Structure formats: structure tokens, C-alpha cells
């Protein structure tokens, strides 16, 4: 009897303890999710993002955690919000956690839920523009640091959080100006984390490089002619020949991906994004007149493992040859990012033992019960390229497993459980990064030797 009573008392005690933990945890989770929803509800869609509203919100969050904060405008009306948690050894190279505040536009009528309501459905999915790209990451940084500060953790290295504008339109007035400023040099950054992609599998995805954007316009010229006349080298005919040549190249690259020989980020992608031709009239286009000019725009993405000179020759000799009245020169690129650094080396972040930050990331994810997949080249472009251009290691990472890739899509969403787990992952990463001292270099603080 006595033994049964003791056992019963233990069970009762455990039940009440678990109940208290559950009751306490639920309001905490609700607060975490409501902060995320608040950030998502700020409409920062291009071309008219509410940057000031986002800045006010982020600085209020920094104040609630006890982080130093400031807003810097390299271009008027486009603030870079910088938050700081000072390390106990601020002479060590710092950690930069970067994210962007802007999001892409939406077609509201094609969404099941209003894209800036941050609707939480019965399955725990949070629908909002920016839920994956990339307001989730910015808030996960903050929530992870909130937890670390509450636990009494003190970083050795200083930690900076940067929230930059205009990534979705190239980042030229945001991360690019930030990275090349004297202001940035004073931060003494040693490692940068930036955005990655969702993973449909259990494995998180991490990116060590990205494809460089080459935005190209090809023009064709020719004599105007009657709509019924057949003759060689009309502007439209020559442009169509170029488009067909581009299509064949695109198919050859896509076949490598479909066959599993290469990942998407390892091939050159080419997509036609606009076609401009014809003679306009008040009722549409003139139908019996062949135009004297025609042009097409292409979004080309070039991995650092490719040969950019070979691609440039292909453009000049096959896609826009002067012999077909095509005009092409490098100045016609709308945007042409570098593939190699100033020393002629591919712009990549190493993923071997020579880069301790990569090893630390893998270990931190493992300790938080996550798994990393094979290192990848990011198939598009992020702000990380501006930091890699400086020679800094930069890793793209967004902790979203078992999640469809929905950035820039209608009905973009992130499940609340994946969001909360991502905070655990970042808490582990930030703790390990902020505690790291390289004993093989002179960066170790003297009291650590």
C-alpha cells in the first residue's frame, strides 16, 4: 500500500509539472508567433515598401531584448537597421546575421488568404508574403538571441544583425553599399550568415556560393517591310533565330538537371523574360507592317564553376552575331555580376576543413537535432554575394525542412512548427559561433590560452 501511494503521488506530481510546463510554454509560443506575424503584416513589398514601419518594429524588438540599435541610410529612404550584442572579447572578428526587409510584389486575387494578414490556418501554416523569403530568418535571429540572453549566455564575439533594403531589386542601395562602406569595415566581420531555401526533405539546405545574375537584352534591326513580303534578315526573323539558339542551349542545361547529373545551381540557366516588337497603333499593332527593330530580354544565371568567357563568346557569336544585324556588347547587360574574384578565383565559400565556420554550422545543426544536406550553389542570387566579393566567408541558410519551396509564389507559407524549430537551430548556431576561438591563430584572447 505504502509503495502504491508513493508511486501514485509521483504520478500526480509529474502530471501537474507537465501541465504547468504546457500551460507556460503555450503563451510563450503564442508570443513568438505573434511577433513573427506582426513583422509579416508590415507591407514591405516592392516597389513601395514600408521601410520606416519595419525599422520601427525591429528597433522596438531590439530594445525589448537589450540590443544596441541604429538605423543608417546609405540612400535616403532606404534604411539599414543594425543591431549589436557586444561580445566579451570584441577584438575578435564578429558575426554578421544578415536578412532583407523587402519582399516581392503579390497578385492578391490569386492568394487563398490576404498576403499581409499572416493568416494561421488549422494546420499551423502561416500564409504571408515573406514567410519564407525571408522575414522568417530575420525574426528567428532575434528570437534565438532573446533566448540566449535570457539564459545568461555571454558571447565572446560581438554579434551583429543587419536588416537591409532592396534585396529583391538587386540590393544595390542596400547590402552592396553597406558592404562597401567604411561603416562596415569597422564591424570587423569574420563570418556572414544570409538566406537559403526551404527543403522538401528532412535535411536542411546550406549554400556556399550562388549563381551570378547576367541580365541581357539582345536587339535585332532590319528594314521595315510590307506584312506580305518574304525577305531575308528582317528584324523579327533574326531575333527568332537567336531565341531558338538560346532555347536549345537552355534545354541542354536543363537536361543535365533532369537526368540528375547536376544540381540546379550548377548549370547556366537562361530564361526569356520579355519580348518587345511590333508597331503600335491606337487599336493594337499594325498588322501589315514588319517592324524594323525587335528585342528580347533574358535572365541568365551563371555558376562560379562555369567558364564566363565561353558564355560571352556564345552570346556574341551565336545569340547576337553582327552578321545577322544583331547588336550586342557588354554594355547591354542590365546587370552582370562577377563570377570570379579579383584574383581570378571562383567566388565561393569553402566547405572543407579549411573553413571552421562550415564545420561549426554542421555541428550546431546536429546538436539541435537537425541534419544538413550536401552543400549547394544557390540557384538564384542573394545579398551574400556582396560579402563574398570582399573575401568573407558567407553561408546561405534558412532552417525550413519538410517545406515546399514557395519564395515568390502565390500562397507562400511556413508551418509554425518549422518556424519554432528553426529558432532552436539558430540558437545552437549562434551559441557555437559566438563562442568559437581559433587556437591556431593569434585571435585567441589571452585569458583563453
TrEMBL record:
One of its GO terms (biological process) is amino acid metabolic process. Zn(2+) 1 binds at residues 100, 133, 195. Keywords: Cytoplasm, Hydrolase, Metal-binding, Signal, Zinc. Zn(2+) 2 binds at residues 133, 168, 408. Its EC number is 3.5.1.14. Pfam families: M20_dimer, Peptidase_M20. This is N-acyl-aliphatic-L-amino acid amidohydrolase.
